[in-house]
Amino acid sequence: MSSAFKRKRPDGTFTEKYSFHYHDRYGRQKTGIGYTSKKKTEELAAAMQLQERDIKLGYRPAPKSWVEHQKRPYFEVTAEYLAYGSAQGGRGGRPWRPSHYRKRKLALTWWQKQLGLVCLVDLEDCLPRAERVLREYGNGQLTGKTLQNRLEALKAFCTWCVTRGYMAENPLRHSEPFDIEPHSEKRELTDDEIQGLYQVVPWERQLLYETAITTGLRAGELQALDVSDLTDDPAFVLHKSWTKNGRPGLQLIPADLASRLRTLAATGRVQQLYGRNAKRRKVDLPEHPLFFVCTHNSRRFDLDCAAAGIERRNLYGLACFHSLRVTTDSLILRSGATLKDAQQLMRHQDPRLTLIRYGRSKADKLRAIVEQLGDTVRPKTGIVPVSRQHAAKEAI
Description:
Blueprint: E1 3-5, E2 19-23, E3 29-33, H1 38-57, H2 64-67, H3 74-88, H4 98-115, H5 127-137, H6 144-163, H7 191-199, H8 203-215, H9 219-224, E4 235-238, E5 249-252, H10 255-267, H11 269-276, H12 297-307, E6 313-314, E7 317-318, H13 323-334, H14 339-346, H15 351-358, H16 363-377, H17 388-395
Antiparallel strand pairs: 1-2, 2-3, 4-5, 6-7
């Protein structure tokens, strides 16, 4: 049903023109602005309601703004979408980062293969098919986070098509999110584990691990660092084109570490290692990379942990390369730094990430607290345990 009404301004007065409600062919309520005359506005609302009803019943064709695009090839529209993203698709009109562009392109190509998409019209009512595909890959093949990223990629593409009049509606608008919580918590490395890791790796990888623990930089960010990004301050210049939050920054590092990194850069060892792996390298590298990061960095870290005798998984969680960033956060918080200082060093926008997601308490410290608690509440006089039968006789 259609209706006409006047909107109320914040100051309590009403607008001069009437607004109206009507329901489109999909049952969604739409709002429009009519005339200063209520009767003319009601007539307009009734006409819009009748038009949507006729389209729903098939008495008249749908507006050609999106019908004419239904037969466009899927790859042609996705190419236009990716071009938009690389120009202004990010937050604040900024372009996508190269890594985000590659992931979004990979996801859309993956969906084309999974759903057999040829034309844009093939996406119509694709929600059941997409959910079936995601369920199949969710049985131990892909994590919940990966499935959610694939779903969001196609959903964002459909939203973009609707905004530009290429589609009538987003077929994935009612899709439900996946559980993206990690199955196992990342643990921090102990001091002995860190020193043991240093002993079993070459010099250049020791500096990589030490820098990761000192700065909390991720593997992709370490790989993107150029020799010129190491300043005399000493600090790393972080560029918005490859940081995770898409913002530039300055990461302070110890002077001794900076000196050893300059020595590593002067040897040309990193360029030599990349030269050996040039055929397998699929990402763009800086002109003079500061670190050598393996193609399968997580696998390399697991092998190094095994060589150092570090348990990959224990009661406190999983040890992986990202555990180095967890270790950074925990060490900063235990050093006496304020939460604001820790948040800034970790480059977190939300302090809850610093304190809850990454912060860990040291096991031996927790043990000392528990023992102290036990000493406080322990009975001062000895108590002889008695059986239930003896206690019952005493009660009688």
